[in-house]
Specification:
2 domains, 5 strands, 5-stranded mixed β-sheet, 5% strand, Serine Threonine Protein Phosphatase 5, Tetratricopeptide repeat, 443 residues, globular, mainly alpha
């Protein structure tokens, strides 16, 4: 997987909101992958709908961090550390985490905290986390970034919940799970992972416990809710997508040798083949990797994400013609998936097919213009096509999304001089330029 850092927000004008906050000293990365995010959507969708939230609006994103944590910092994103996902043992446990975090949104905990912080202007170290919303994206193999600084006081102010909020979120989350057909036992099983840690020195506690206060009374209350609402059998579809998510995630985050020793634990033959393909690709055994992914595709020929994975392997081994064909098959099966489109555009560009890459990358941008990897490729494509104004605009947007507003302003100013005054692209450049100028005034 590739990593780049982009903070989160739904529109460039919203960057102006960031000016109430300081820029971050550090940023954490997101692991972005079309397949894994689809698996998360399949498990999260019924829970989010039960909570009255739109699965299309609320993104479930994976943070590149091996510690155990989950959190929300806006009303349209839930963040899960990959270490927590790897620790969970069932789809119901993951759904329990999502239900609990969704309850923080629906119960108004995040809105109140955000309003208080924005008005007081007292929280530092958050960078553009409030200004760049919930879906920083990468290509199918890429990562985005979340601009959450390292200042512990700021993180506690943003992420920390009171015991009253936790109790409220537990009760609501259990109700959402029951309505969604997910066993409420999953939330209880997740909480028990952290049982006893409240007695540890704070430096030895998992981050989840520091932001989500846990006590024996809280666990007893959840046990009571579970007894009242009852348990449910595991959903076969959720079980499959959890196995696929965790299988692919561990294949990327654990050593290839670890994955290859545990292929038999994958639960499903196609997932075992997918994991084998990733591990062998990471071992630079391309032929073996392609054989494994081809066998997975033979089992699920209409699975767009397997073709996407094949395209990634080929692209990263510089088999550009074959990569274009693999991504094209993925796009035919999932024509509106921004991450697959991004990978396809990248492959076309690498293959020298600039004119073909442009509309593909533009379509990806329209689906999700917060994809820094795609924006870099799109700017390159515009430059190679001789459209220097558009190249400057897209570069400005990429720098803005990365929090580099000074650099963004330089390219935005150049773009405004090259684009037709009053046009849509010219206005986009103006938005970035205004954000850059306001950031400069605060220094």
């Amino acid at each position: 997987m590739r990593f780049h850092r982009i903070p989160r927000r739904a529109s460039i004008p919203a960057l102006l909101l960031a000016l109430v906050l300081a820029l971050p000293a550090q940023a954490a990365s997101l692991l972005r992958d079309a397949d894994m995010e689809y698996a998360l959507r399949q498990m999260a969708a019924p829970v989010l709908r039960a909570a009255g939230l739109s699965p299309d609006r609320v993104k479930i994103l994976i943070v590149d961090d091996s510690s155990l944590n989950a959190f929300v910092i806006s009303n349209d994103a839930i963040f899960l550390h990959y270490g927590l996902i790897n620790k969970l043992g069932s789809a119901a446990m993951l759904q329990g985490v999502i239900a609990h975090e969704a309850a923080h949104i629906t119960n108004g905990h995040i809105t109140r905290r955000m309003g208080n912080m924005a008005n007081a202007r007292t929280v530092t170290g958050l960078g553009l986390a409030l200004a760049v919303a919930a879906a920083a994206a990468g290509g199918s193999d890429a990562a985005g970034g979340i601009a959450i600084g390292s200042a512990s006081a700021a993180q506690r102010a943003l992420l920390g919940h009171t015991r009253a909020e936790e109790a409220s979120a537990d009760q609501s989350g259990i109700r959402y799970m029951k309505s969604a057909g997910a066993s409420p036992q999953g939330l209880l099983d997740t909480l028990k992972i952290f049982e006893g840690q409240e007695a540890l020195n704070i430096g030895r506690q998992d981050p989840y416990l520091r932001s989500h206060p846990l006590s024996r009374d809280r666990i007893r209350a959840v046990e009571g809710y579970v007894a009242s609402y009852g348990t449910l059998p595991a959903d076969p579809a959720a079980r499959y997508w959890f196995a696929r998510l965790k299988g692919k995630l561990t294949a990327y985050t654990r050593a290839p040798s670890w994955t290859l020793r545990r292929l038999g634990d994958s639960g499903y033959a196609d997932i075992a083949l997918l994991r084998e393909a990733i591990a062998q690709h990471r071992n630079s055994r391309t032929k073996v990797a392609l054989t494994a992914i081809d066998r997975a595709i033979a089992a699920r020929p209409k699975d767009a994400f397997l073709h996407d994975q094949r395209g990634q392997i080929l692209l990263e081994t510089r088999n550009f013609d074959a990569a274009v064909n693999a991504y094209a098959r993925g796009v035919r099966l999932a024509p509106n998936d921004a991450l697959i489109l991004s990978g396809y555009g990248r492959a076309l560009l690498a293959n020298g097919q600039v004119q073909q890459a442009l509309p593909v990358l533009e379509k990806s941008r329209r689906q999700d213009f917060r994809d820094g990897s795609m924006l870099r490729d799109l700017a390159t494509a515009y430059a190679k096509a001789g459209q220097t104004g558009m190249a400057a605009l897209v570069t400005a947007e990429r720098y803005a999304l990365g929090g580099r507003l000074k650099d963004a302003g330089i390219h935005a100013k150049r773009a405004t001089g090259l684009l037709a005054t009053g046009s849509g692209p010219w206005q986009r450049a103006q938005d970035v330029l205004i954000a850059s100028q306001r950031a400069a005034k605060r220094k």
